[in-house]
């Protein structure tokens, strides 16, 4: 399939301007002109895929106030019915009080209805890499059945990408990397990746050329400064994930 993913991608919906990984954040990012979004997903205890970055619920939800035991804040320990009742907006600001965590299904419907593309980071609860990778890939095959605007599935966890590849080989994948590993290209090739998403500081001319020579796109996170954008464009990279949806105009690449 040809690569038609937008160059500019809004991090977790709208960066830091709204509660991350919520529909409110996606709507705000869209209001700033973004038509591609990154989000994080994991599995509930009963197998529902929902948006959350952290392994625990403490930072971005009301769980630590509502549930008494420290173990209660581990997101993957709870069924979706309980998770769906949490407030995922007040931590950010009172304007978003009561905003819930969305399911992947809800985000997929939003993106499809609004002509937006999605980069889904598979963020498993520890020990659930394989189960989460397969579940996300299978859900995406169902949600985007018959469509050409498939999401890009990315992860730092090689086991999650292996499982996604086994479950749905045709679903586009990307290897995420925060600390440079010399075997990055071998891993990406073995996983059949369409892209590599590096911490932006890891890219240099040789690595960009190596990715392109292997038929992969070179993408970067999380890029919030103009000098970094200029540097990455000069290197010939293919996509930028940013928090600064209010600072960069996505149509200008």
Explain what the structure shows.
The chain has 253 residues and is of the alpha/beta class. It is 31% helix and 17% strand. The chain is built from nine helices and nine strands. The chain has helices at 23-31, 63-66, 80-83, 104-113, 129-143, 158-167, 184-190, 205-213, 226-235; strands at residues 8-11, 36-43, 49-51, 117-122, 152-155, 173-177, 195-199, 217-221, 239-242. Strands 1-2-4-5-6-7-8-9 form an eight-stranded parallel beta barrel, surrounded by five helices. Helix 5 (129-143) packs across helix 6. The longest helix is centred in the middle third of the chain and has 15 residues, at 129-143. It is globular. The chain starts with 7 loop residues before the first strand and ends in an 11-residue tail after the last strand. The mean pLDDT is 96.
Secondary structure layout plus pairing:
Blueprint: E1 8-11, H1 23-31, E2 36-43, E3 49-51, H2 63-66, H3 80-83, H4 104-113, E4 117-122, H5 129-143, E5 152-155, H6 158-167, E6 173-177, H7 184-190, E7 195-199, H8 205-213, E8 217-221, H9 226-235, E9 239-242
Parallel strand pairs: 1-2, 1-9, 2-4, 4-5, 5-6, 6-7, 7-8, 8-9
Antiparallel strand pairs: 2-3
Helix pairs in contact: 5-6
